[in-house]
Amino acid sequence: MKAVIQRVSRASVKTEGRLISEIGQGLLILIGISPQDDISDIQWLSNKIANLRIFNDEKKIMNLSLIDTGADAIIVSQFTLLANTKKGNRPSYINAATPDIAIPLYEEFIRVFEKQVQKKVGTGSFGADMQIDLQNDGPVTIVIDTRNK
Fold first, then answer.
1. How far is CA 129 from the centre of its chain?
2. In the annotation, is 80 catalytic?
3. How far apart are CA 1 and CA 36, in angstroms?
4. Model pTM?
5. pLDDT score at 149
6. I need a labelling partner for 132 at 20 to 30 A (CA). Which of 10, 11, 19, 149 fits?
């Protein structure tokens, strides 16, 4: 499982011109799921992201987590994070899980993360063509891969 975490001042997700999720300060979390991922990856990654100290404290030092700040989050499934670009110029997505595997893991990640941060989070629409608008704050962008735990 791979995640791209962006600290944002604001973020929103639309599909077919309809607003699905919108937050102010918080995290936009893009999740790529592989066929090898399981509940242990979900639990580890959820805990890591919820406790990642990337928000500023009163001294402007990145020392606070999403849990500490009570900020919001949006979680979006993005299979392209698992693109293989070794050969040629057309990425291969063979490393991404098929929807029958990815959807239940994505939904479980959301449930586990919400329990971890003790609040509802915004989501994307799995498999839909989405437009994501965000203002990266910092900019702060972190990439985490559960294969490197």
1. 17
2. yes
3. 8
4. 0.96
5. 87
6. 149
